[in-house]
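This protein record is not my work; I was only asked to verify it. Take the sequence as given and treat only the tokens as open to question. I have pasted the whole thing underneath without changing anything:
***
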Amino acid sequence: MVKLGLALLLTSLLFPLYSGPMPELAPGLISFFGIVIREVFVGLAIGMVGNFLFYGAQFAGHVIGHTAGFAMISVLDPLAEINVPIIAQLLNYLTLLLFLIIGGHHFLLFAVDESFIRIPVGGGVFAPGMTEGMMRMTADIFVVGVKLGAPVLVTILVIEFSLGVIARTVPQMNVWLVGFPLKIGLSIMVLAISLPLLAMMFEKFFADWQGILIDYIYAAAGD
């Protein structure tokens, strides 16, 4: 309800500022619903691109959670309405906080305003560049996720290698019993230490994401 109310509020504030020509509804109701469907699909495409910045952090949290042993500990994601590993939810909240700190919500409002200006009502198009851009950004989710989770993943790899050597040299030791809490403890410690690095990487990804989102709006406008 909050998201719907916010969307209606932004629309009511921005739409009166739009001075472009209004579409003709000569055929009647069928034409009206055609315009509505087109606007919905264009809005969903732009909104999905806007969420790609957070999908990478969520993917990093999924990888870290399953690798470090947090797969059984899941919480409800109120946005996606699914259960996700607790590390994924933690990184999601951290990236959302960073997004607000660096003024990402201001740029997002600017992008919404730009979509009203560039894309006239009923004038959105599905250019080939939009599909290619969507596929490229989908692949970038995995790249961003691996980069954000690299410090913890490398630590876990070193731990697994060390435990493997210990298991071969000291077979009497229960490596699984020792390794499980060791991986969890060191993963949390490395994640806490690497938070400033994650913030720097997120700012870089945010700078690239700004250009991608604006280019996507221009592609939807047919420019």
